What we know:
The protein has 190 residues and is an alpha/beta fold. It has helices at residues 2-11, 23-27, 32-45, 61-72, 131-143, 161-167, and strands at 13-15, 19-21, 53-57, 76-79, 91-98, 103-110, 119-127, 146-156, 172-182, 185-188. It has one domain (2-188): Rossmann fold, CATH 3.40.50. The protein contains six helices and ten strands; from the N terminus they run H-E-E-H-H-E-H-E-E-E-E-H-E-H-E-E. The strands form three sheets. It has a six-stranded mixed β-sheet with strand order 4-3-7-8-9-10, sandwiched between helices. A two-stranded antiparallel sheet has the order 1-2. A hairpin with a 2-residue loop joins strand 9 and strand 10 (185-188). Helix 3 packs across helix 4.
Amino acid sequence: MQRMEEMILTYGKVLPGGILKVGSFLNQQIDSLFLREMGEEIAALYRDCGVNKILTIESSGIAIAAAAGIVMGVPVVFAKKHKTSNVDGKIYAAPVHSFTHGNDYQAVVSTDYLTDQDTVLIVDDFLASGNALHGLVNLCGQAGAKVAGMAIAVEKCFQGGGDELRAAGYRVESLAMIEAMTDDGIVFRH
Ligand code: G4P
């Protein structure tokens, strides 16, 4: 998506440690009109794939997932990062290691919202090493749900998670793919 690349080049900031800051339009302040474009792009990519549900993980994935869900006309489920008091009853839980934050957590979803009747599109804001996505795939597996594919706003190809998922047979579509990133500039994969 050319516009995502333009947004990154215009507003993104490269931080030490291979981190791209996009707080001005994606991670803290959300550019609503651009969010709608992202939703439309994701919906177009997965048109006619039988998707009846979108799955993401709190928190930054939710806005993009909801934008896609509105266009596709399907519900959006978000995994929580801990079992909280409002996730009661039976749950599916998957361990996730966050490479960026250096911590571990459980991705948790109620068994009410993910079933073997679902064909799921997994959506998230960033794809780095892919641990969060593996956790969401794990949750789908526990539920017996089919994974139609994944849609990501920004893939950092240099961390390898996306290519690993593709090699495992998953369809992974990223609105921008960053091959390399330094203070001097950003190189996109096309
Ligand atoms: P992985 O899931 O692909 O393995 O990635 P990783 O553990 O490294 O990412 C952990 C968190 O850091 C995720 O958010 C992810 O979206 C975010 N992240 C990773 N790389 C970048 C980056 O270059 N820029 C920004 N802005 N975020 C990045 P999270 O901890 O789940 O937080 P949130 O969704 O609640 O914001």
